[in-house]
Amino acid sequence: MWATEALRRGNRMLAAIDTVKNAAPDMVVTTEVCGCSWTDHGECALLTSNRRVDREATFELMAAMALAHAKQGADIVSPTAMIDGTVRAVRDYLNQNGMPDVGVNPNLAIHTSLYGPFKTLMGTNPQRGDRRGMQLEPGRADREVLLQADRWLDEGADALTLQPVLTCTDLLVRLRDHVRVPLVAYSTSGEYAALIALGEQGMVEYHAGLLRAGADLILTYAAEQVARALEAAR
Ligand SMILES: [Zn+2]
Questions:
Q1: Which has more confidence, 190 or 88?
Q2: Ligand 1 mean position to 15 CA, how many Å?
Q3: Of the candidates 89, 104, 119, which is a domain's last residue?
Q4: Do 60 and 111 fall into the same domain?
Q5: What domain range is 160 assigned to?
Q6: How far is the CA of 202 from the centre of ligand 1 (A)?
Q7: Distance 16 CA to ligand 1 centre (A)
Q8: pLDDT tens for each residue of 38-59
């Protein structure tokens, strides 16, 4: 199987989980489960010899990655490739291996330019195309996000992550009205570049707005600044 580094003992992801859990044992750790940081072609999925998505091999990889993260101490795993079947594959494999308490929190990714800095940093720009076919189209996402949310819940999702949020707050509100599982708002790397211009107080107000719109949790690059600002205001 390709992307073997993704499953190597002590790889960067597993070492990071270990480091965080040692430094802050009570902190909830959630990990990305996806191929794109580990494949030489930068695609989220494994490919067949004629460059099509190899669904079976991809499911196997995602399931094995999720179990490796869970065994290392991850509390929640997030399958981020938008490939139907991956959430079921991950959920079943965790259950079969005695990890029913580890949450599965898949992604609802809307196509946006706001993933840019992350993709460059992680080297996950695919060699061909732009992954748009695997993300929801912004112009139709008002309906598609609800359909995809239902699919993930059918496959066994415990929570859902929406990204980006700066340009998709309306979708957060729709999801809040539609589902009862926890919602995670993922404020992406490109958003952070914009949030810097808002300043610390503006960042706090932005994140408070996400909570008001329906987020239960926020994943954000501004976490440290917001935490400092909240601490100072006490
Ligand atoms: Zn990916």
A1: 88
A2: 20
A3: 104
A4: no
A5: 107-234
A6: 30
A7: 18
A8: 888 888 889 998 888 899 999 9
Can you tell me the mean pLDDT for 69-91? 96
| C-alpha 43 to ligand 1 mean position (Å) | 6
Q: Ligand 1 centroid to 197 CA: how many Å?
A: 28
Q: Which pLDDT does position 127 carry in this prediction?
A: 66
Averaged over 151-175, what is the pLDDT?
97
Cα 232 to averaged position of ligand 1 atoms, centre (Å): 37
Question: Are both 230 and 127 inside the same structural domain?
Answer: yes
Number of domains in the chain: 2
Q: What pLDDT digit, counting tens, does each position of 122-139 carry?
A: 666 666 666 666 788 888
Contact status, residue 80 vs residue 44, Cβ threshold 8 Å? yes
Q: Are 80 and 108 in contact (CB under 8 A)?
A: no
Q: Which residues surround ligand 1, an ion (CB under 5 A)?
A: 34, 36, 44, 81
Spacing, Cα 194 to ligand 1 middle (Å) = 23
